[in-house]
Amino acid sequence: MRVASSTGASPKSASITELSRLLADGTDPDTLLTRSVAHLGTPPAYVLSATGRTIARTPTAPPLPARRAAEAVTATTTLSVDPDASAYAQWHLHLPEPVGTPPRMLHEIAEVLAQHRRETLRRETTARGRATDLLALIDAPPSAAAPAALGRALEACGLADQDPYTVITVKGAADDDGAVDALAEALHHLTDCGFAVGRLPMAEPGEATAVIGTRTRTDSRTDPIATTLKNLWPTLQSRSAKVPLHGGISTPATTPQSLKGALTQARHALTAASSRRAPGAEAPTSNLTAVEDLTTLDALLTGIPADVRTAFGIHALGLLADDTNPSHRMLLETLDVFLTHNGSWARTAEALHLHVNTVHYRIQRVEMLTGRDLARLDHKLDLKAALLCR
């Protein structure tokens, strides 16, 4: 249920003066929520984020597991605090138990919380400006002054001495700011990590990037940041299901100077995530890919821009790239099966139901049309990559 702003009186048990003072003093959301619902007998109440992150709860409200909290966001007893925010940035007032309260009073509580939310959004907007300055320095060409400037920018974002750093880039709809909100909401689930979310100066529409400070090094083969965000991604995507949300994560950058390399990794992983399709799907599905996931040639190539892949495939395959020719399609199929069976003439012939001599003839034709020697490993790899790029 969405709640519009109300101009009525504040909740009866907490005077307008008291709530205004609490808001002006920057009171924590737990206290503000508790005072706002006091006239209801202080029932269990929560303020939840779009993905079910608990922002505030009353003393009578037990902790909500993340899965239950995410489900509670869409419950009938939940009100939207800021309906004008993006799907990822909304806060929700959740009362798990029915209360015999006129809707007007619940609107009043939501309005009090909305004022607090608007103040946090102002602070977040300021922080995003500093993050954008940091990202511009990371993406800039190296210079003698760059290390000092980068250090100051990290400090301004609260990320000084929080290495190793991880970079994540996401892309959503091109016509709104949802990607920035989505990324910020996701990173709030990393409770022990600082982060700075903004936009690169030359970012594509709908793209956002963040630097995450982890503070600790891990010897684990699995990146805990990537694991946490991958587990969260389906819930995050469900908040705006019609718009696929893709993301790419770098490996940890051990020093500020290696952040540019981490940014390159994140962009490559984002391209890979945007290129992946579920079996039978016509469009890419929402995906979060870590660069450490790109462990095969096929996966690595998905991170290369589509026009570059196409150009490579055309030039590497030579005349064979014209698959409108039935003869060429037959040769491409034979080449694919031949490489799949590690260059085995007998297994290729068996798979295609051909005589071995026919396979020899076709592979000779492939070599002639492509200018490659399939007895050489590097030429085999070139043609395998070309087939994957088609």
What's a quick, concise take on this entry?
47% of the residues lie in helices and 11% in strands.
Explain what this protein looks like in three dimensions.
By secondary structure, the protein is α+β, with helices and mostly antiparallel strands. It has 14 helices and nine strands. It has a five-stranded mixed β-sheet with strand order 6-7-5-8-9. Helix 6 (178-187) packs across helix 7, helix 11 crosses helix 14 (377-388) and helix 12 packs across helix 13. The longest helix is centred in the first third of the chain and has 37 residues, at 103-139. It starts with 15 loop residues before the first helix and ends with a helix.
CATH topology of the largest domain: Alpha-Beta Plaits
Overall 3D form: elongated
Query: What is the mean pLDDT?
Result: 86
- Placed side by side, the strands forming the largest sheet appear as 6-7-5-8-9
Which CATH architecture of the largest domain is right? 2-Layer Sandwich
- Considering DSSP H and I runs of 4 or more, what fraction of the residues is helical? 40-55%
Instruction: Look at the helices and sheets and give the structural class.
Output: alpha+beta
Biggest β-sheet strands, sense, barrel: 5 strands, mixed
User: What is the tally of helical segments?
Assistant: 14
Strand segment tally? 9
Number of domains: 3
First-last Cα distance: 48 Å
